[in-house]
Amino acid sequence: MSEKHALEVMDLSVDYMDTDRGLIHAVTDVSFTLEPGEVLGLIGESGSGKSTAVKACMGVLSYNAVMRKGKIFLNGRSLTGEGFTDRKAHQEMLRGVRGKEMAMIFQNPGNYMDPTATIASSLREAIQAHSRMNFFAANRLAYDLLEDAGFQKPKEIMRSIPGQLSGGQLQLIAYESAVVHHPSVLIADEPFSALDSENRSLMLDKLRKLNDEGTSVLLGTHDLLSAESICDRICVMFEGRIIENGTTEEILKHPREAYTQQLVEAYNLMKED
């Protein structure tokens, strides 16, 4: 483990218990590093294990997931409990890290929002979690965040609940909520999946700007077109393992593994269209 890495994952293995298919080895012996100021893509189709891997980094695995082994370090500090004898102290440390030093945009962010709370309330909660901002200042910042996200009528959005908004709108709100405290690492799990082409371009621009300002980005996606435009390096995941990694140019021009070659062929066809 080296302190120069923004994020380091070592030998991560995660199983899902009691599923319809029994025990599932979702992630097996996955290791990678994210460097300061870098955008790293975890690329793979649905079921490849990339979403499980990024959720493990954030410490938000689902109730039936078990991390069998692995170590995760954020800026050289362990997130997986090494050095902690008190579980409560470990969880307290994680609460201080999440949303402040490391934040995440979830795929289908509406599933992670309180369905009864207004967008204003959810944004204020995110803002006040790591600041002493009062209600009125937090409310004003929430309005500004929605303006920054490109919403033409921020007041209407603030009064809305998640079920009244589209997946694309929720994705943009989730981004603004995640970056409000300027984390050193942003994890983005399929952040383009619910976006039309215009908002996809907007999200890419936002991620580039954030990265230019010094935030390292771990991007989980099946979208090689987006990965090409923003990622410095790519790790290709297949059946829970990283099967190939390299610079984005290396992966797209000289894929070695058969699965990667198939991804690149599909990507080239999409570019031609």
Which helices and strands, and how do they pair?
Elements: E1 7-19, E2 22-34, E3 39-43, H1 50-58, E4 65-74, E5 77-78, H2 87-97, E6 102-105, H3 119-128, H4 135-148, H5 154-159, H6 167-179, E7 185-189, H7 197-212, E8 216-221, H8 224-230, E9 233-238, E10 241-247, H9 248-253, H10 258-272
Parallel strand pairs: 3-8, 3-9, 6-7, 7-8
Antiparallel strand pairs: 1-2, 1-4, 4-5, 9-10
Descriptive terms for the model:
alpha/beta; 273 residues; four-stranded antiparallel beta sheet; Rossmann fold; single chain; 39% helix; six-stranded mixed beta sheet; 10 helices
What does this structure look like?
The protein is α/β, with parallel strands linked by helices. It is built from 10 helices and 10 strands. It has one domain: 3-Layer(aba) Sandwich (Rossmann fold). The protein has a 6-stranded mixed β-sheet, with helices on both faces. The protein has a 4-stranded antiparallel β-sheet with strand order 2-1-4-5. α3 crosses α4. The chain is globular.
Summarize the structure.
By secondary structure, the protein is an alpha/beta fold.
Structure annotation, total helices: 10
Structural class: alpha/beta
Biggest sheet layout: 6 strands, mixed
State the helicity in percent bands: 25-40%
CATH superfamily: P-loop containing nucleotide triphosphate hydrolases
Principal-axes geometry comes out as: globular
Number of domains: 1
Rg over C-alpha atoms, rounded to the nearest angstrom: 19 Å
pLDDT under 50 segments (min length 5)? none
- Could you please say which CATH topology applies here? Rossmann fold
CATH C-level name: Alpha Beta
Assign the CATH architecture: 3-Layer(aba) Sandwich
Quote the average pLDDT.
93
β-sheet strand percentage: 25-35%
Compute the number of strand runs.
Answer: 10
- Oligomer designation: single chain
H/E series: EEEHEEHEHHHHEHEHEEHH
First-residue to last-residue Cα separation: 44 Å
**Main sheet: which strands, in order across?**
6-7-8-3-9-10
